[in-house]
Here is the input.
Amino acid sequence: MTTPDLRLLDSFKLSESVCQNFACELSKDERFFFVAESGLFIITQKANLNSQVAKYSCLKHYLKPTDFAVSENINIDLQSFMYELPRELFYETFGSTDLAPKVADLPAIPKIKQAQWSDVNMVDHAFCLLGVLTSFYSLEIYMKIRSENNIIEYKNVLNLSQNIIEQRRTNFVYSNRMPPIQKNNEFKKRVEICAPLVFQWSHCFSYGDYKCSVIFIGHFGGDISIWRVFSLRSAEKEARSEFILRYSTKLGNISALYWHQTKEYGGALCIGDKKGKISVLEIVGLDNQTCRIKNEVEFFSKEDVQVDKISIVSTDKYTFLVAIKQSYLLIFALNASGEVFDFVAYNVNNFYISGITHKDNVLKVCTFTGVLKELVLTVENNNKINILDYTIPVKYDFFGYRVSGYFESTNSILFIMILSPCMLINKKSFKQGDTTICVFSDTNIKPLKLLLDNATGSLRTFWDCLECLRLICVNEQRFPWLGLSSTLEIDSVTVLQLKTLRHIAKISETVFPLIKKVATYEIKPFILLHYLVQIKLIVQRVGNLLEKKSLGSHLTLFELRSIDLQVCFLKELVIGGFLAKAKAGMTFVKEISNILAIANEMEFPDMLQCQFCGEKLISCICLPPHPDSRCVFSMMPIFIAPSYICLMCNSLAHSDIEQYSSVPIICPYCDFPMEAVCLSDNIKKGIGNCATNDLDLIDEVRTKCYDDCVKDSDETIGDLCDNLDNNDILFNNVSDDEEGVKRKLEESELKTLYFKLNSVSITNKTERAHELDIINIA
Here is the structure.
């Protein structure tokens, strides 16, 4: 195993300080947050392959928590008896911002105590919810939404603290006639039985006809409450929750929780408290109305210092429970039966631990002094824990900063550290309060090799490699394909490899202007690879629809028009000699031939006319042409607003695609789940009105062609059709109105040309050399 060697790729600053350790976390849908003093910064990792700037590409959002306070919603008004309390009780109650946040003239500002991402599939079957716990004991659930204006915000869809209060209201004692001291005690008791101290998401699972996840909530006195939260769609305004169970543990005030799934509907809930004790609950039956706690096992009963964080490291034979207390790691080794057979307390010797990640049996631990260590956990003689530790070199000067958290990307190629200033230095560039986000790369891992060795069948989890490759190439001013095999045959690669080459070609063209001397260029142009990917995707989509038709299923109007448009696009590539230019092999020729042979025997309904110009749609762009929006799956026009958009490449999807595609909607180029666009009521009304109108009844063509269409030609439509029959032209953009053309083209002649294009086959005879090459390419 090679120890990582970290080199700084980029750093950027945000305007607030970090207020705690373990301040950041990476989600499974490529987002991360870090907890600032008065809010939460949420950063979405977005690979920008078009950027020539060596800056880490991401989108930044700021989430400010609500001022909801548990103490103000438990039906006791502090101000009604505050001056009747003894001085000691008065100071004790009103000096605590979590108990009396708004009593003073200067109300306290809510701080974020904890945040955590849920499992994926909680939003649109592809994305995570975000749980946020404030210093006022408000546990809130947020969902990311995207408007039709491409504005992103985080919407509060559930306040679990409010639900906890309602569920515990039957335990409140009538207090209106109590004396002040008793009323104050009842007030504190209500806060204690309701207030969340820490929370933990479970995995996502099926519950009846729904997807859901469980939230475990730690309270004062060692109580654990369990709530079920249901998944939702982006268009929904609120999330739904159900109370499952409340359990009193043998611990005190809970400070750390960790869920370890062991069964489909069960697992182990690891618990630590503020006195340093550790227990594990075995929970089963999460798919039942009420789950069951089979057992509580005490792992550590000695009282010392607070448990800061708990994690589980699993291998094939053993499981390690790791608890963090300041600079110590308490490591418990468990066998297959769940019995503890060894225990080790490991001191990192570098002050507090502020971040931890693990894969398999390898732990990476970061301290707030900037020291990053790698610990390899093994078992000797089946009864003794062995720890091999290495210090990971980090090429960065941490003087004047403390590291408040760190994480690594999916493929462990990018490491991100959250730095906040801890010393006042007399420098104008140093501002007290700034947080620095540092992005490091592991120089021992080659991103191109990871991309080419990808065996997952998808690019979904490899965008960290693409972004790392871009940053390295921009910094070093070199091409990304160095090391790519020169014997790679396009005709024999998979669709995944073709998409990977497409992205590498885009990076190559991005860095091309930065390279002073270009000796060779050993990758196909991006546009050629883009069209080759499109051919593969169209062949797959149209083939599936044609197979569906052959099995006797009825194809809808949307599906038939989609086939028509995509087949026309293939014919344009054939007429234009694209296959010869791309040096595609017989595999491409045969696949296109099969599709065209079947499509030419089919009858298609009249194609839609463009809502903006009135031209009939016969391609992937509108003729004459003009820019328009098309669905990335069907090439059907999107007239008002798309229903889905890809975060990575901004591809759009039509609303009707939901009926013909599995959920979630996956971008065909990026393999990344597309985000649903939340439309306003006015836009929905406009789409409804548009749907009630027959777009096929557009009689008037309202726009003119561009000057490069048929302006300089004396040919009539009849001549153009004859030339198309004889393959004497490559491509024609035809409009019925052109400045400089004296005669207005008749609608019947346009239809004739449309049907001529429909009959094009890849086996048409031709006298052009490049077309002969296509036919004889074998």
